[in-house]
Amino acid sequence: MGIERMRRIDATAGRAACAVLTLLRRWGVGRPEDPGPPRAIVVIKLAEQGATVAALPALRRAAELVGPDRVYVCVFAENRAILDELDVVPAANVLEIRTSTVGVLVRDVLRTVRRCRRLRIDAGVDLEFFSRSSAALLYLTGARRRAGLHSFSGEAHGRGDLMTRRVSANPLQHVSHTFRALVEALVLPVEQLPAIDAGPWDLEAPDPIAPSDDVRERARALVDADDRPPCVLLNPNAGDLVPLRRWPEAHYVDLARSLLERHQDLRILVTGASDEAAAAERLVRRIDHVRCRSVAGRTTMPELLALYWEADVLVTNDSGPAHYAALSPIDIVPLFGPESPAVFGPTSARSHPIWLGLPCSPCVNAFNDRRSPCRDNVCMQRIAPTAVADVVSELLAARPPR
Question: Which residues partner with 315 through β-bridges?
Fold first, then answer.
């Protein structure tokens, strides 16, 4: 099911569900919070695998509160892979929802709700930004203590009044801190909220996830060179959620040609998911160089993470791979425009974001459903390939020899 269809479902069925459930709540349907600390927590983090990496400190905090065996994470099936790699909750505690068709989606939602109620989960956190469907889902799980962003002043309206622990959206803090604050709200005095008397926290870089030897060997074979030359990865896609985040394909062509001319032993690999393979192959044909090829659609999530260990630099649009790469020692050059690296940047110490900070940027945030009226992403177009090539060359020069 495509992103736009999911958005339409959220804007219609999700809005209606929130309205009905809000009325039921105000009429006194449902029981109040249990006294004392939470016993089991369900975390709703349906979409965006990159944001799941950013949510790692929040998931760890939830595990501290009730134990990892009592934390459950609800996720869309296509976004589960990175959660399995993070290994923060048992695999059996991942509540998977498939989205192939509306019928499958509804059946899996009902199955998830039944399981949460059988488990008697008493607390939940909605880590989606003002999504109506996730708020309704959290309410239906039966969790009496519910933390989530609340539309105090009409932000992203239509979410209703389903949270018992209401938190304000802060457009200036890093998303990982927002997620951590939502979990913290579960144990703060409810009368104190939306003030969060906790933190401030440092940006917490995730621990590297070292690949197994066999997975690393498969990743090493993708570089296709016995002498392990310098390797740069290009991730030209940004997903369908915010297409404005894409750097122009022609800029990637110019960047690759410049790097290949500057570094005579450099290998360039274009990465991507299986549905991005055709676009990646087209990009490689435009670059037209023997030391550049595509591996899009040829890697599992473990193999992609291992590839970050084998390569030196990743140049990527603001998207999930920028965050996956934070789980490795690779240098990351994420390109930002419609969103700010101060809010959505990878937390790796080896992240070197490029953002021009034009007067119209950022234009996408939690308050506008991550939609923008912009139809001309000059914030991305004006990032010059030569400037990116200079940064990459400096990073390659500073890398220790293999």
Answer: 234, 333
